[in-house]
Design a protein that fits this description.
Elements: H1 2-27, E1 63-71, E2 74-86, E3 96-98, H2 102-105, H3 112-116, E4 120-121, E5 126-127, E6 136-140, E7 145-149, E8 174-188, E9 194-208, E10 211-224, E11 238-250, E12 255-263, E13 273-281, E14 297-301, E15 305-311, E16 314-321, E17 324-328, E18 338-345, E19 350-356, E20 369-378, E21 390-398, E22 403-411, E23 415-425, E24 431-443, E25 447-462, E26 467-477, H4 484-489, H5 491-494, H6 501-508, E27 511-523, E28 528-539, E29 545-558, E30 561-574, E31 579-590, E32 596-604, E33 608-618, E34 621-630, E35 635-644, E36 648-657, E37 661-675, E38 678-682, E39 691-695, E40 718-722, E41 730-733, E42 743-747, E43 749-752, E44 759-763, E45 765-768, E46 770-778, E47 789-792, E48 797-800, E49 806-812, E50 817-822, E51 825-831, E52 844-851
Parallel strand pairs: 1-7, 39-44, 46-52
Antiparallel strand pairs: 1-2, 2-3, 4-5, 6-7, 8-9, 8-37, 9-10, 10-11, 11-12, 12-13, 13-20, 14-17, 15-16, 15-18, 18-19, 20-21, 21-22, 22-23, 23-24, 24-25, 25-26, 26-27, 27-28, 28-29, 29-30, 30-31, 31-32, 32-33, 33-34, 34-35, 35-36, 36-37, 37-38, 39-40, 41-43, 42-45, 46-49, 47-48, 47-50, 50-51, ...
């Protein structure tokens, strides 16, 4: 045994010395082709050496190689088998050239007219080299990369985080199920009543090629033991499919095609639900700096609360928020029209207000046309049809560098509306747009209503002053002006829908004027920030509505305490049915790396003072505890806990008010993705969004994502990163510091540019297994050549042969097959024994290596 160990040490030393001499010999060769002086190597059989891959600077021996591809420094998401072939009309042994196939060239992002003019050669089918001036292609085997340099004049528009359509990934087939569930339990201390409310919403879907089939669902359950009628509505769980639809991208048109139930997407007309088809220019297909605007929701919660955002009864967004001001900024920019916001406090109070999502001034890049087309029948809640066929069309044309024209038409057999507007880029003064809509509506029994609606919109970012007017707008509508949604909701038109109170209410609110403004101002030198969100709506036949939130924040340092923050928020939510005015004051001071204490006071309808403590347990969980007193000298306490786990996010809340109530709540948010290549449970915040299925080659518990991420591969070696965005290049890497024992990664970063709703698939090169010292010997008793590469079945290199067939193999498994590659071609193959040595590197394995035809090898 001792002699074996001594021999092992000698073998390892021989391998190290041989490889060191080999690298030294390679270092002294000239820039061009020269021969190795193999006498410099301490090798017994100098004729049996495979060092051709080291004999010429930049030279690649003809053969097939698995390489990453870089285009002007940007690595393509997939790796490719690249054939290096002998150039035409050149003798064997001269420079080889890579075969650029049609599939690979399609990923370059060349302009369509450039692609149309390319010439191709046969056997194999490759792009003829040298036909594009300035294009350089070089194989870099040391980094397993094919480097391609292309002049920008030949390429479509690209930037750091955006790829041209040629590189967009429609993903693989599979199914998704995303969910958000909220539960609230309340105990009334005065009469002992107990109330339970359970709500949820989500998206179920199926991906087939570029098509996305989706079903938006909602559930609702409520129980109040004060209700003696056990059969009353709400006593059982109710599940509703709120919307069924399918969509797919049309990259050639930079648009999205949707079939089924949808909401009218319009920049000039009001939104309503319909069933039919739409074709809409998709701004998300544009580079990020050319994309549109997404609305944000602001308000103040007096206690732990659930915020629900709906449109025409369909839940768009739902979340739990702690007491205090909230600002929700992650709504989709595709949302348009009016949104209903409902804030349900754990003390039983409810706030309700409306937010208008009118977009910033409608400007289009010079020479481009953006459009939105729709055809179908309007519908009510629960999929009931609501009127005859209608059609709508609108477009915006970038006339010049500063001017845009836009307008549209919408109507059916009884309703017609036309809009026309102009947008102007005022350069340093911002952007402005103005439009007018003329509508004619024939209402049974009431005659024809004709009216106009004028609108003015403005936006400006003042970078030098650290301020931003996100949106400012004004709209005025005549008394007899009816939008199509007004027309559809009119009781006279409703006919047999008279019993539907929701739709009758819509007609009662006849819009007159609307003012909207959102403004941000930062003063970094003084640690000050200012935020204003204001909207006012007036009606011809209803009371006015006023909503605003005004905040002033200050950060400062006191002695050793840094990042102390103070804020003052004033708010008003006022309508004909609800009014809430108040002022919210807060103070927060860090007392450690992850903890802080706070004080806040609410003055208004629900006056209260509270002391709070916030703590962060780790990178994935935090909590908040508050205690205080209200205007009636009632003691209150509440707590909030949030955790982001490997399969989803969970929140827990508790609240207590002396002499009134005690309540608890929870929320669960996550998703499931399943494909033929595997699946996983995972977190998700934007339901139905694009996601990336990651494969760690069957290795479980591999950490991935940004540092500190909770995402790890499951027991099957699969993980899903959701919310990948769409049409934007995203990278995901492994956390190499947390690799499992005996695991190594040769490809630790992947990237993808996914289309909307896609399930992308990427595989990391993770190898896990034992380390062994082996001797490979051919059937005839000879050894494979010195310097040959030893690969696994997936063509990943495990080691390099030294003298007498010695090789050190890392990351191998019992019974695994290994291949020996000599100068680009498979020379022989061997199989590891069913049982490997118990202790690595204490024994040398003798592996017979049988010669094999490369064409007969299957991965």
């Amino acid at each position: 045994m001792r002699r074996d160990r001594m021999n092992n040490k000698k073998r390892k030393l021989a391998i190290a010395i041989s490889l060191s001499l080999l690298s030294h010999a390679a270092a002294v060769i000239a820039d061009d082709s020269v021969d190795f002086n193999t006498d410099f190597l301490d090798v017994k059989d100098r004729k049996n050496i495979s060092v051709g891959q080291f004999s010429m600077s930049g030279y690649v021996i003809p053969g097939q190689y698995w390489l990453a591809v870089k285009i002007n420094g940007t690595t393509l998401p997939d790796e490719y088998f690249i054939d290096f072939i002998v150039a035409k009309n050149k003798p064997t042994g001269s420079a080889s050239v890579p075969c650029l196939t049609r599939e690979l060239v399609d990923q370059f992002g060349l302009k369509p007219d450039v692609v149309a003019g390319l010439r191709w050669q046969d056997n194999p089918v490759c792009m003829v080299p040298g036909q594009l001036d300035g294009v350089m292609v070089k194989g870099n085997l040391n980094q397993s990369t094919l480097e391609v340099s292309i002049p920008q004049a030949f390429l479509e528009y690209t930037d750091q985080d955006w790829d041209p359509p040629a590189r967009w990934d429609t993903g693989i087939n599979g199914g998704i199920l995303d969910y958000h569930i909220d539960g609230q339990f309340r105990h009334d201390q005065q009469d002992g009543a107990q109330m339970l409310d359970l709500t949820g919403n989500g998206v179920a879907g199926l991906n087939l090629d570029a098509w996305r089939m989706r079903a938006d669902w909602q559930l609702d359950y409520s129980h109040d033991d004060r209700d003696s009628d056990e059969s009353a509505a709400g006593q059982q769980l109710e599940w509703t499919g709120s919307r069924y639809y399918a969509y797919r991208p049309i990259p050639l048109l930079r648009s999205k095609l949707t079939l089924g139930e949808d909401y009218l997407q319009s920049d000039v007309f009001d939104s309503f639900s319909f069933i039919g088809a739409s074709l809409v220019s998709d701004d998300t297909m544009l580079p990020p700096n050319l994309q549109g605007y997404a609305p944000e929701i602001v308000g103040v919660a007096h206690s732990n609360a659930k915020v629900t955002i709906t449109q025409l009864g369909r839940i768009l967004y739902q979340t739990q928020v702690p007491a205090g001001p909230f600002r929700l900024q992650d709504l989709s920019q595709s949302v348009s029209g009016e949104l209903d916001v409902k804030v349900e406090e754990q003390n039983g109070d409810v706030q309700q207000f409306t937010v208008n999502t009118a977009s910033v001034p409608f400007l289009t890049r010079p020479g481009l046309v953006r459009y939105k087309l729709a055809l179908g029948r309007p519908q009510m809640w629960e999929h009931k049809l609501n009127g005859p066929m209608f059609a709508s069309a609108e477009a915006s044309w970038g006339v010049s560098n500063g001017w845009s024209l836009y307008g549209g038409l919408i109507g059916d057999e009884h309703y017609r509306a036309v809009a026309l507007g102009v947008g102007r880029d005022l350069s340093i003064l911002g952007a402005l747009s103005a439009d007018v809509t003329r509508a004619n509506a024939d209402v049974d029994g009431k005659g024809t209503f004709r009216g106009n609606s004028w609108r003015l919109s403005y936006s400006k970012r003042f970078d030098e002053y650290h301020s931003n007017i996100t949106f400012a707008g004004y709209r005025f509508s005549d008394r007899n002006y009816m939008s199509m949604s007004d027309y559809l909701d009119a009781p006279e038109y409703a006919g047999d829908r008279q019993e539907d109170q929701y739709y009758r209410d819509g007609y009662n609110y006849r819009n007159k004027e609307m003012y909207t403004i959102t403004f941000n101002q930062n003063i970094p030198d003084y640690g000050l920030s200012f935020y204003l969100n204001y909207s006012r709506r007036t009606y011809w036949n209803q009371s006015d509505e006023n909503n605003y939130s005004l905040s002033l924040a200050k950060t400062l340092e006191i002695g050793r305490f840094k990042n102390i923050s103070m804020s003052l928020t004033g708010y008003r939510n006022q309508s004909s049915e609800f009014s809430d005015d108040g002022v919210y004051i807060s103070f927060s001071m860090p007392i450690g790396d992850n903890d802080n204490v706070s004080y806040n006071s609410t003055l208004g309808k629900n006056s209260a003072q509270r002391l709070g403590y916030y703590g962060r347990i780790n990178a994935h969980s935090n909590y908040q505890i508050n205690a205080g007193v209200d205007s009636g000298d009632h003691i209150s306490a509440d707590g909030y806990y949030s955790q982001e786990g490997a399969i989803g996010k969970s929140d827990l809340t508790i609240s207590y008010l002396d002499g009134d109530y005690a309540s608890a709540g929870f929320s669960l948010e996550g998703g499931a993705t399943l494909t033929a290549k595997g699946g996983a449970l995972h977190p998700v915040s934007s339901r139905g969004s694009s996601r990336l299925l990651l494969d760690t080659s069957g290795v479980p518990d591999v950490a991935m994502g940004e540092w500190g991420s909770a995402t790890r591969s499951n027991r099957f070696g699969k993980a899903v990163i959701a919310d990948m965005g769409m049409y934007t290049r995203r990278s995901v890497g492994l956390d190499l510091r947390q690799l499992p024992d005996k695991a190594e990664a040769s490809r630790s970063v992947v990237q993808a540019t996914l289309t909307e709703g896609a399930i992308g698939y990427r595989e990391f090169d993770v190898i896990t297994g034992e380390r062994v010292l082996a001797v490979l010997r051919l059937v005839n008793g000879e050894f494979p050549p010195f310097g040959a590469e030893v690969l696994n079945a997936r063509r990943k290199m495990l080691g390099v042969l030294a003298d007498d067939g010695n090789v050190f193999l890392a990351g191998v498994k019992a019974g695994e097959r290994v291949l020996v590659r000599q100068e680009g071609h498979i020379f022989c193959q061997a199989t590891l024994p069913a049982v490997l040595p118990a202790q690595e590197l204490t024994q040398t394995l003798l592996l017979p290596c049988a010669e094999v035809n490369e064409n007969d090898i299957k991965e």
